[in-house]
Specification:
Length: 405
């Protein structure tokens, strides 16, 4: 029987996750140079439109119909065939329309996360092809395998809200794109607007409550656990990043604090509804410290991941999935498993193998895909276009009227 409370909450959660994509655009837009604000923001906003088109035509069907125990679904629900006003999601608590909308918002933001890695270096036409193919051949299979009753779900792999499906795949795809595209001509670029970064971070944190708590797809005790775990882990990660950077660089950095919050949010994502409350501070501290160290390692290796997508989302997603294997408890969620600290060595092993496999696949596939796309249209812009900035050279627009500021 339809639960109006759960339905109302899931509509709100869907709206919150939708808001994360504009939030991401603001976060990335503030971190970009003044000549590339619109170039990075449009890459997020175009996903709002195009991903919805793909989702309605075949994306939802490939993720959530048929193929039980398999790698990808079928086309039984293409164009939302067979989904009517009275169709219910499998838990019987919310209309299927609401579930379609909620999962669509995840599909929208996941490829957009990758774009921060190659800011001001990639042609929009190449990105549009990338956005399309990456969803179909990376995102959809992992959604189906874990959330759609596919291969990994049958094996016993858990991912509450996207540590594997979203962050590990997007983060390691970002690293592959950095290796393929190469470094920026001007690597000393600085953020054009830290206040814009702060606004984007705030919207992302706000939206993440829908991202994580909404992944219970109902209103119950697990929903409340996921909500509070999300905030606690993010807060502890924020402070851990702030303090370690303050100690190392002798000054408290605002961008570092904001980045630490995103690292904590990404890391708690797979764990939120499966781990007890006492574990979330430990997960947050680990996220703040290890993601910070990953960014420092990236800098030493001279990998030009411009906005630290790999260090925050890739490492955060992998770390969170592994820690899920450590701290999970059936006492807080009967639908989960017991982690390593409760004797669940087999579950821990499955989580480690699954997240490493997903990261490896996303990395290799992305690199090969970019090679192929380059035969169709150049992936990287010319040095002259890069120096001019993508806003003017590619999009023919400017973010600000420079004569007025």
């Amino acid at each position: 029987m339809l639960e109006t409370g759960s339905t109302g909450f899931m509509l709100l959660a869907s709206s919150l996750v939708m808001l994360m994509t504009p939030g991401l655009a603001l976060f990335y837009g503030g971190l970009a140079t003044k000549r590339n604000i619109l170039g990075i923001m449009i890459q997020s906003f175009v996903s709002l439109g195009w991903t919805t088109v793909l989702w309605v035509i075949f994306g939802y069907s490939l993720c959530f119909s048929g193929g039980e125990g398999g790698i990808i679904g079928n086309l039984d629900k293409a164009f939302l065939n067979g989904v009517g006003i009275s169709s219910m999601y499998s838990n019987g608590k919310i209309p299927e329309f609401v579930f379609i909308s909620y999962q669509m918002m995840f599909a929208i933001i996941t490829p957009a996360l990758i774009t921060g890695a190659f800011v001001n270096r990639v042609n929009f036409k190449a990105y549009f092809i990338f956005l399309t193919v990456w969803q179909i051949l990376v995102y959809y299979p992992f959604v189906h395998m874990i959330w759609g009753g596919g291969l990994l779900a049958q094996w016993g792999v858990l991912d509450f809200a996207g540590g594997i499906v979203v962050h590990a795949t997007a983060g390691f795809a970002a690293l592959a794109s950095v290796f393929y595209v190469g470094a920026r001509t001007d690597k000393n670029s600085t953020p054009n607007s830290i206040p814009l970064v702060a606004i984007g971070s705030g919207l992302l944190w706000f939206g993440w409550y829908g991202f994580n708590a909404g992944s219970e797809v109902a209103v119950d005790t697990v929903t409340t656990l996921a909500f509070l775990n999300t905030d606690i882990a993010a807060s502890f990660a924020t402070m851990a990043w702030l303090f370690v950077e303050w100690i190392r660089e002798k000054k408290p950095k605002f961008v570092g604090l904001l980045t630490g919050s995103i690292a904590g949010l990404a890391t708690i994502t797979p764990c939120a509804g499966f781990v007890p409350l006492w574990a979330s501070p430990l997960i947050g501290i680990a996220a703040g410290l290890l993601c910070y160290l990953a960014v420092q390692f990236k800098n030493r290796m001279k990998w030009d991941d411009a906005l630290d997508v790999w260090g925050v989302h890739g490492v955060g997603g992998v770390l969170g999935t592994i820690l899920l294997g450590v701290f999970a408890s059936k006492a807080v969620n009967a639908a989960g498993s017991d982690g390593l600290v409760l004797g669940g060595g087999d579950f821990f092993f499955k989580e480690v193998i699954a997240v490493i496999g997903a990261a490896f696949f996303a990395f290799v596939f992305t690199y090969v895909m970019l090679v192929i796309i380059n035969y169709i249209t150049p992936v990287k812009v010319s040095e002259n276009v890069e120096k001019e900035g993508l806003d003017a050279a590619v999009h023919g627009e400017k973010a600000y009227d420079e004569g007025a500021i």
